[in-house]
Amino acid sequence: MHVLITGGAGFIGSHLAELHLAQGHKVHVVDDFSTGSPANIEPFVHNPDFRFTEADIANWPELSQTVPWADRIYHMAAVVGVFRVLDEPIRVMTTNVQGCDMLLAAVHKGGWKPQVLIASSSEIYGPRVDDKLSEDMDLIIQPDAPPRWNYAISKLADEALTLSYGHIHDIPVSIARLFNTVGPRQTGRYGMVIPRFVRQAVNGEPLTVFGDGQQRRSFVDVRDTVVMLDQVAGKASTEGIIVNVGHDREISIMDLARLVIERAGSDSVIEIIPYEVAYGQPYVDIRRRRPDTRRLHSMVSHRPQWTLEATIDDLIRAARQARDTAPA
Is 294 contained in some domain? Predict the structure, then answer.
């Protein structure tokens, strides 16, 4: 199988590349390194089945030539992370929506019908406080915090584009609403909480909890996520499939901080940081984000193999190794 991954040098994208190379597939990654890193794909660069192009998907001149090569396309490229969403609200909208539209248009014009999986986000559910978030519930976008919701709006637009292209042009598509994916290669630069907590605990620094710490999240290891994405993509349909991809175990951010400190055997303390201080502007948080995974588990055979504790332990080992081998 020929696999094209936009944003493939990013956190999840690079794990998708690794998975498909291990399956013996040919993989073409395109990434502009705005969020991704050369280090994420360095282990693959000498693999004859791997090809990399540094480019922005929104103005990549080879897009129309490459799309007909692919049997499957994962569209992972996007402006991501809370800090970037707040600092670059216009770019979030233009890049995320334009990139998705151009990719889907190229698929249609190419005359080939690859399986297309578009990465969406749990952010799309907005400030709901339901016990579990299901794919068929109404979505909420608050009007009083537009920069905060630009990312969710861009992903909603991507979903609408994807379903429209699938229906009108008979393209087999699927949409994965990703929930708090964590694991190796994830950076804390743009607001991701577990990499930040692990780094702080390993270095004996205070763990900085934004807000009151009572907001609740559900975390899933990227090594489970990519297997489930592979299986979801294999069921792409011209009618369109929307599915939550995540783990339904829920934990408060305060309890997460305590868990990281415990697993690291750290003497770190917990420091509460108001949102206005953390982000430099008023911020509206989502209090709960737990997926209803019934549709997911009706579609895929894989069940998460990594517990949150096992993922944290793995990240702590890697952080200690990186610290101990860093140049003095």
Answer: no
Which pair of tokens denotes residue 309?
A: 């504790």
pTM, 2 dp: 0.95
Say what the pLDDT of residue 327 is: 79
The CATH number covering residue 47 comes to 3.40.50.720
* Residue 14 in domain: yes
Which candidate, 302, 285, 284, places its Cα nearest to that of 293? Answer: 302
Nearest CA to 220 among 241, 250, 199, 195?
A: 250
Q: Is residue 75 part of a domain?
A: yes
* One-letter amino acid for residue 96 of the chain: N
Domain that holds residue 279: 193-214+250-286+305-325
Q: CB 129: neighbour CB atoms within 10 A?
A: 10
Q: Give the whole-angstrom CA distance, residue 258 versus residue 158.
A: 37
Give the active site residues: 151
Tell me the average pLDDT across 292-308: 97
Residues 69 and 31 in one domain: yes
* 197: amino acid identity, one letter: F
The model's pLDDT over 111-149, given as tens digits with 9 standing for 90+, comes to 889 999 999 999 999 988 899 999 999 998 777 667 778
Give yes or no: residues 105 and 202 share one domain: no
Is 53 a member of any domain?
A: yes
Cα-to-chain-centroid distance, residue 293: 17
Same-domain status, 151 and 201: no
Whole-number Cα distances in Å, 74 to 65, 98, 154, 225: 16, 16, 17, 13
| Number of structural domains in the chain | 2
> 157-166, pLDDT tens digit by residue?
999 999 999 9
Structural tokens at position 291: 């997926």
- What does the block give as tokens for 265? 């055997």
